[in-house]
Each structure stands twice: as structure tokens, then as C-alpha cells.
Design a protein that fits this description.
D-amino Acid Aminotransferase, Chain A, domain 2, nine-stranded mixed sheet, about 300 residues, D-amino Acid Aminotransferase, Chain A, domain 1, alpha+beta, 2 domains, EC 2.6.1.42, binds 4'-deoxy-4'-aminopyridoxal-5'-phosphate
């Protein structure tokens, strides 16, 4: 799969991919001052549709609000621009990357009162983030030596560019040591999340996931899975989880827009359950991917058709 397309929506205009450039003195480049989203468009039985489009654009606005960053476009306007970007690029399935950043506003950490942000929306083809066969075979993960940010330091509810320095440390350590992904603990030593995914475990048929107070991003896939699991009669518990509860779980999987629902077959070299995708994970995957082929009813209106 390629990770390019023809046009990027840039402050209200369609700009050719190669010409969508910023200045090297851009604030975000120096200080990490950007907020962004990762969204998927699926080629569904009803036609191309953006999954939980409004929730993603709302989270983008929420991330900006935490940092008091202005956005000149409402969630509705951003959604319309995303649909236009997909159409312009002839994409039926895509990964979508909206980004709001403080651009070339002059040096200094504090931009002048009344500054404006720059906004882009890129959309391009992107397959399974952790590999196609990972969705079935699972991945080998490790608990990182790096913790997630402490409360009241870097806010983990914001999907901000700077936060991804943590993901870079966690994900890079794992890959360097021969694992496919890293799992971070919070500052209290409880399970938080993967470098770019939320995490779930299954024990005795009950589905567990860390509370968001364990420094995890409020994942939209996480929320979808909690909703779908409840609908299919799986008991769910959001609670603090110890590192060792991962080792003793029957099943572990990671969730995210990019990673979708990826089973974890081992952690720190310890086999989890049967060492491949388990029964509950399979059921949840079917419910999730069923949304895109019609086998699961879209009863919450999660599909935003690109061409209604
Ligand atoms: N945690 C982190 C750190 C992430 O980057 C992501 C991907 N956005 C997630 C969790 C999963 O969030 P979502 O399901 O909304 O993509």
C-alpha cells in the first residue's frame, strides 16, 4: 500500500501533495504545538464511509481546547472538508489525518494574542498498521521501560503532537528489541496503553480495560469496542490493571484507528492464553468489522457516508 495521494486540504484549499509545505520556523516544529486525528474511511456495503467522523472531529476540538488553540473550522466544516478530500483523491478506503498546528507565527513559546492556527486534512491509502496477519496471528509486545506522562504534566486526553515523543520512546524501544509494539505503564505502575493503541484483556470471559485516569488516550475505537461488547452480552470492567494481569490474561488485544483490533500473543516473552487470537477477540473483531460489511447493524450512526 502506498501512503500518498494527490491533494491535501490546506486551510480551505486543495493543494497538490508535493506543494503542501510549511516554513522551518513553524512553531509546531520547535515546540510540538499541534493537535491531530487519525480517522479511517472504509469501503462499506453502503459505499465509502468515515467511521465515527464527528467523534474524531470533536476530539480534535477538545485537544485544541485544552491548549487554548483556536480552530477556524467547526467540526461540521472539517467533516465536509474531509469528505471533499476523499472525493478529490478518488479514495474509497483511506487513513485520514487532520492536523491543526501553530505555524509561522514568530519565535517564542507563547504566540501573540489573536494568532491563527493552520489546518490540513490529508487522506491516503493505508493498510493494517501492525500488518495484515497480525489481525489473526497477533503480535509480540513488551512492557516498556518508559512510563506514560504523569497526571497534570502533559495532558494525555489531548491527541497532541508533543505527546507522541512518549509513543516514539515506547514504540522504538519495542521494535529495537525485536517486538512489534510496546505497552506503557502509568506513573503508578498500572497498565496504561500501547504506543498508539488502547489495550484490553479478557479473563474468565470478562473484558477489562484501564480507566482513562491511567494516562490513556480516550480512544474512539476503545469506546466503540466497549459499546459493541456490551451489545453482544460481554461483561466489561474499566479499572486499574496491574502489569501481571496482562501475563495471566486469557486474551489481550490492542485497539486503535490504525491498529484496528490487533491480538497480542505474547508480552515480555510470556505467552498469553493460547498464543494467538482468542474466542472473545474474534467475536469482537467480527462485530467491529461487521459494521463495514453490513453484518453488524450501524445502530449508533457511526458511518458517515462520503456521498450521502
Ligand atoms: N492511544 C494512543 C496513544 C493513540 O495514538 C491512539 C491512536 N489514535 C489510540 C490510543 C487509539 O485511539 P483511537 O481508537 O481513537 O484511534
Amino acid at each position: 500500500t502506498t501512503s500518498k495521494s494527490d491533494y491535501i486540504w490546506f486551510n480551505g484549499e486543495m493543494v497538490e501533495w508535493a506543494n503542501a509545505k510549511v516554513h522551518v520556523m513553524s512553531h509546531a516544529l520547535h515546540y510540538g504545538s499541534s493537535v491531530f486525528e487519525g480517522i479511517r474511511c472504509y469501503d462499506t456495503h453502503k459505499g465509502p464511509a468515515v467511521f465515527r467522523h464527528r467523534e474524531h472531529m470533536q476530539r480534535l476540538h477538545d485537544s485544541a481546547k485544552i491548549y487554548r488553540m483556536p480552530i477556524a473550522y467547526s467540526a461540521d466544516e472539517l467533516m465536509a472538508s474531509t469528505r471533499a478530500t476523499l472525493v478529490k483523491n478518488n479514495l474509497t478506503s483511506a487513513y485520514i489525518r487532520p492536523l491543526v498546528f501553530i505555524g509561522d507565527v514568530g519565535m517564542g513559546v507563547n504566540p501573540k494574542e489573536g494568532y491563527k492556527t493552520d489546518v490540513i486534512i490529508a487522506a491516503f491509502p493505508w493498510g493494517a498498521y501492525l500488518g495484515e496477519d497480525a489481525l489473526e496471528q497477533g503480535i509480540n509486545a513488551m512492557v516498556s521501560s518508559w512510563n506514560r506522562a504523569a497526571p497534570n504534566t502533559i495532558p494525555t486526553a489531548a491527541k497532541a503532537g508533543g505527546n507522541y515523543l512518549s509513543s516514539l520512546l515506547v514504540g522504538n524501544e519495542a521494535r529495537r528489541l525485536g517486538f512489534q509494539e510496546g505497552i506503557a505503564l502509568d506513573v503508578n505502575g498500572y497498565v496504561s496503553e500501547g504506543a498508539g493503541e488502547n489495550i484490553f484483556l479478557v479473563k474468565n470471559g470478562i473484558l477489562f480495560t484501564p480507566t482513562l485516569t491511567s494516562a490513556a488516550l480516550p480512544g474512539i475505537t476503545r469506546d466503540a469496542i466497549l459499546t459493541l461488547a456490551k451489545d453482544i452480552g460481554i461483561e466489561i470492567r474499566e479499572q486499574t490493571l496491574s502489569r501481571e494481569s496482562l501475563y495471566l490474561a486469557d486474551e489481550v488485544f490492542m485497539t486503535g484507528t490504525a491498529a484496528e483490533i490487533t491480538p497480542v500473543r505474547s508480552i515480555d516473552g510470556i505467552q498469553i492464553g493460547i498464543g494467538r487470537r482468542g474466542a472473545v477477540t474474534t467475536k469482537i473483531q467480527q462485530a467491529f468489522f461487521g459494521l463495514f460489511n453490513g453484518q453488524t447493524e450501524d445502530k449508533y450512526g457511526w458511518l458517515d457516508l462520503v456521498k450521502p
